[in-house]
From TrEMBL:
This is 3'-5' exonuclease. Residues 1-24 are annotated as: Disordered. CDD domains: RNaseD_exo. It comes from the Bacteria. SMART domains: 35EXOc, HRDC.
Length: 417
């Protein structure tokens, strides 16, 4: 290595200090709250605390059915850190009421809010540190990366994908869980300052308000269509096999409280759809059906395939889900060339604006909103009408103010009326 290269590396090292490992919570690992008496103490402590409340939840995705919380972590000034077992204490509405007027600080709020809502905990207002990082232009917005880049500490992230339904929870996991909320409020404060410096704080506050006010997500339409590998399945009878197997698997997974993928893989479902077996013996020979777990349910899988095989033509699923909006963009050139030109111009304009503002394009405005406005633009092209069209599809005021002018220009340039 040359002397000049060594000097450059030394200079870079001096400019970017190595992150400080954060190994233990300030007050140590708190005991897990798993009784009404312990929960009452935590409620009293958090009611007496001040300022925002750091909130996190751990699920057992990939191990258990659904997205329920198996540990809830909280931290507040004057209250310390609490680790609550929601299996032992399934009603946390009293805890939520203890800081009902406080701002919640979460990382990737939309991931945790549904399972917290199931426990009776709903925020009046929140600050999402992941979304704040996106709006501030950070390239990496995971909690570990944000804490490292903004605060200069490194978090141990080795337990993010463990089975949080395990009881008792091992001490290293509890340490990891407590550290996840240790610096969350500090991160919030630093990001608020950075957003204010960039002139983006009001944008963030509008986004946070929208998240807090959003209703719980409803059930998906035709969730079986999200089976991995579905693009290989073309025929309607084959689609029926996917649907019946997916539904049977979901019922077994729900009854056994096991992640559906551990009951039967998506790849196995697609394999059975592409070559539906006539017998159980032939089913076992297919990939994914010969293992011990799948063999225990062979009669269930075979019955599902037989149901799909027996369906009359008029009850077979359609190749695509019912359309509720514009067609896929790849079809626009044939269906409506003018709309295709509008969309192309709008995409270029929105992408350019997002780059100028140092924002991910999807945070500036959702691609679906752009598609819908381009497919059915306002009859009268004006700044006001384009803004109203954006608002009708859920755009916030800050998005309307920024996007409406560039979208209007794109629509006007391609208007042939």
């Amino acid at each position: 290595m040359t002397d000049a290269r060594e000097a450059a590396l030394e200079t870079a090292s001096e400019q970017t200090p190595a992150p400080v490992p954060l190994l233990d919570p300030r007050e140590g690992i708190p005991p897990v709250v798993a009784s009404p008496e312990a929960l009452a103490e935590v409620i009293a402590a958090f009611s007496a605390g001040t300022g925002p409340v750091a909130v996190d939840a751990e699920r057992a995705s990939g191990y258990r059915y659904g997205q329920r919380a198996y540990l809830v972590q909280l931290r507040r000034d004057g209250s310390g850190t609490a680790l609550v077992d929601p299996i032992a204490c399934p009603d946390l509405s009293g805890l939520g009421a203890a800081f009902a007027d406080a701002e919640w600080v979460l990382h990737a709020a939309t991931q945790d809010l549904p399972c917290l809502g199931e426990l009776g905990m709903r925020p009046a207002g929140l600050f999402d540190t992941e979304l704040a990082g996106r709006l501030a232009g950070f390239a990496r917005v995971g909690l570990g990366a944000m804490v490292e880049n903004v605060l200069g500490y490194s978090l141990e992230k080795g337990h993010s994908a463990v089975d949080w339904s395990t009881r008792p929870l091992p001490e290293p996991w509890l340490r990891y869980a407590a550290l996840d909320v240790e610096l969350l409020v500090d991160l919030r404060d630093a990001l608020e300052e950075e957003l204010d410096r960039q002139g983006k704080l009001e944008w963030a506050l509008q986004e946070f308000s929208a998240i807090a006010a959003a209703p719980p997500p409803g059930p998906r339409v035709d969730p079986w269509r999200r089976t991995s590998g579905m693009h290989k399945v073309r025929r309607r009878r084959q689609l029926a096999v996917v649907r019946e197997l997916w539904t049977a698997r979901d019922q077994v997974a729900r009854e056994r409280d096991i992640s559906p993928g551990r009951v039967l893989t998506d790849a196995a479902i697609v394999a059975a759809a592409l070559a539906p077996p006539a017998t159980t013996h032939a089913l076992v020979a297919l990939p994914g059906f010969g293992n011990r777990g799948s063999r225990r349910q062979l009669d269930v899988w075979m019955a599902a395939i037989d149901r799909a095989r027996a369906l009359p033509e008029n009850r077979l699923p359609q190749p695509t889900a019912p359309m509720t909006g514009p067609p896929p963009p790849r079809a626009w050139a044939d269906k409506d060339p003018v709309a295709a030109a509008r969309l192309s111009a709008a995409r270029v304009a929105v992408t350019s604006l997002a780059e100028e503002l140092r924002l991910p394009q999807e945070n500036l405005i959702t691609p679906d909103t752009v598609r819908r406005v381009c497919w059915e633009p306002p009859r009268t092209l004006s700044l006001e009408r384009v803004g109203e069209a954006l608002a009708a599809h859920g755009a916030r005021p800050w998005q309307m103010e920024l996007v409406a002018p560039v979208l209007l220009a794109a629509l006007t340039d391609t208007d042939t009326s």
